[in-house]
Amino acid sequence: MTLSDMTALHSLTVVIPTLNAAGTLPATLASLRGGAHEILVVDGGSTDDTVDIARIAGAGVASSERGRGIQLQAGGKASSSDWLLFLHADTRLDEGWRGAAGVFMAGPANRARAAVFGFSLDDPSPQARRMERLVNWRSRALGLPYGDQGLLIARSFYESLGGFRPIPLMEDVDIVRRIGKKNLAVLEVAAVTSADRYRRGGWWARPALNIFCLSLYFIGVPPRTLEKIYR
Residue 216 domain-assigned? Predict the structure, then answer.
């Protein structure tokens, strides 16, 4: 990593929305250590040890109304850094993310672009590898990554887009559609996400539900209706 890449990281705030994330947040925070100017956890009313874990790790903590879109929006407003990295609380970044992010942030043209990480799951099964291939193809071919791949974006570009909208579901799809495929880079470093929802919901049923909700979103079904279907 060059000096300019390291300097870029000093202007980065990582925003993490949380709700009862005590089981996964420690690994997420540990993966970020030494790679950002600020880590801001935006909590939506956790009743477990989430807030204490964040504070012990040295992260800033803000409170927000519950809802990922609402929490992400609040985190963006609460930080004054030049760059923002929005990251889910059950996602940890692989080694090498600092270098990849630093190189992207140091590129002047990238101030009008955004980047996500590759998709990976913390599960050794063949089903997980299949899901990774599908998601990574969708991200590159269609320009439709999901929020568990993170979103690295310059504040100026983020604000020009209007930022995250306070919607209960599809907030990630909503913002990447406004960014546009041609303005979206996929970094060659993985964001490793918990596979619990696939193990609980089924390796076929969970993706089918995601595709169903995405299809309804594209034809104009309101996000609040989609949330009821998804939950």
Answer: no
Beta carbons within 8 Å of 16's beta carbon, 6+ residues apart = 25, 28, 29, 39, 40, 41, 42, 59, 75, 87, 88, 89
| Rounded-to-10 torsion of CA 20, 50, 16, 60 | 150
HSE toward the beta carbon, residue 177, CA cutoff 13 A: 9
Give the side-chain half-sphere CA count within 13 A for 216.
Answer: 18
Task: Give the total number of structural domains in the chain.
Answer: 1
Full domain range(s) for residue 160: 3-200
- Residue spans of beta strands (DSSP E) within the chain: 12-18, 38-43, 60-63, 83-86, 91-93, 114-121, 151-154, 184-193
Roughly how many angstroms between the first and final C-alpha of the chain, as a whole number? 42
pLDDT surpassing 60 at residue 141:
yes
- Is the CA virtual torsion 141, 147, 149, 153 positive or negative? positive
Domain of residue 151, CATH code: 3.90.550.10
Cβ 199 vs Cβ 152: under 8 Å: no
Q: Give per-residue pLDDT as tens, 197-231.
A: 999 999 999 889 989 999 999 999 998 898 888 87
